[in-house]
């Protein structure tokens, strides 16, 4: 099962399915911050297809204006509830810190994807180990869109290697992010491409399969209380009937009887052979001492 969590157009769906992707997330992008008067959910419902899972993703590009806030708050939770995945693309050091430390905490507005802008001439921030480790520990992943390897290869290779170095190959997902259908590639080709960044072959394969699958499962917990509790559903099998009791069974047993039906002996009545032997030995010693005293009690006369 291969995932592409950054499809930019519904027109690419047929090609993505042909290439072998079975879980596809359609992306909508917002610049700077969410404005309830301007932004609407433009991802219409897609007709279901057998064996294919469609998801809705929202990406907010964070710039200097976003440092004052980008309205990812509980007041607008109803709007964000319409998306399966929330992603942030920071472009400053302050927005990177906010994305890694604040918005990866469990909540109805948890961010699960931090997308790195790899096509810029250089990274606009320093990838600190403490920020990256905290985000990964909270369950977030760092996204590497492979389309930059085709459109801006020089910048993409240097920045993508830096992401792999800082994350040590953990918590990485690879997606397309392609605006043109000609930039889409098959999953195995992408795994070979990412392995050139320094990832082992199994980690490169997991970036398209295991890691995004875990991400999607964690993203579903946004609708639960602090991503911990969920409402259980009791499923009763068809044709199941409760057992019928035919007779009453006695379950009471007397305390004074043992499992064999015999009475238990009292503690004061029980005596061990060791105690009896010690008593008889003490009586013999007393008699011997009396006998010794009686034998030496006479007077001795001088000759």
From TrEMBL:
PANTHER family per record: RIBONUCLEASE P PROTEIN SUBUNIT P30, RIBONUCLEASE P SUBUNIT P30
Gene3D superfamilies cross-referenced by the UniProt entry: Metal-dependent hydrolases
Region of interest called Disordered, as start-end residue ranges on this chain: 238-303
Lineage: superkingdom: Eukaryota
Homology family: Belongs to the eukaryotic/archaeal RNase P protein component 3 family.
Keyword terms, alphabetized: tRNA processing
GO biological process per UniProt: tRNA processing
The keyword Cell inner membrane is annotated on this UniProt entry: no
Biased composition (Low complexity): 250-260
Protein name as it appears in the record: Ribonuclease p complex subunit
Pfam families reported for this sequence: RNase_P_p30
Subcellular localization(s) per the UniProt record: Nucleus
GO cellular component terms given for this protein: nucleolar ribonuclease P complex
Molecular functions (GO terms): RNA binding
Coiled-coil segments on the chain, per record: none
């Amino acid at each position: 099962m291969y995932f592409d969590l950054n499809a930019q157009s519904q027109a690419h769906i047929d090609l993505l399915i042909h290439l072998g992707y079975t879980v596809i997330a359609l992306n909508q992008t917002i610049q700077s911050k969410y404005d309830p008067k301007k932004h609407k959910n433009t991802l219409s419902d897609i007709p279901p297809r057998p064996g294919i899972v469609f998801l809705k993703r929202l990406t907010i590009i964070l710039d200097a204006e976003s440092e004052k806030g980008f309205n990812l708050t509980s007041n607008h939770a109803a709007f964000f509830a319409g998306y399966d995945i929330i992603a942030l693309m920071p472009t400053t050091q302050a927005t990177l810190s906010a994305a890694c430390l604040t918005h990866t905490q469990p909540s109805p507005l948890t961010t699960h994807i931090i997308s790195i802008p790899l096509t810029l001439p250089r990274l606009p921030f320093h990838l600190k180990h403490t920020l990256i480790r905290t985000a990964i520990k909270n369950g977030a992943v760092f996204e590497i869109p492979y389309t930059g390897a085709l459109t801006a290869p020089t910048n993409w290779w240097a920045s993508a290697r830096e992401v792999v170095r800082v994350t040590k190959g953990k918590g990485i997902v690879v997606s397309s992010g392609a605006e043109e259908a000609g930039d889409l590639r098959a999953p195995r080709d992408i795994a070979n491409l990412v392995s050139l960044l320094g990832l082992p072959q199994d980690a490169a394969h997991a970036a398209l399969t295991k890691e995004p699958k875990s991400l999607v499962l964690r993203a579903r917990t946004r609708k639960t209380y602090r991503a911990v509790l969920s409402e259980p559903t009791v499923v009763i099998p068809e044709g199941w009937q409760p057992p019928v009791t035919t007779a009453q069974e006695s379950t009471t047993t007397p305390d004074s009887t043992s499992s064999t039906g015999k009475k238990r002996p009292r503690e004061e009545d029980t005596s061990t052979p060791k105690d009896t032997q010690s008593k008889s030995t003490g009586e013999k010693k007393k008699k011997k001492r009396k006998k010794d005293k009686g034998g030496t009690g006479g007077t001795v006369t001088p000759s």
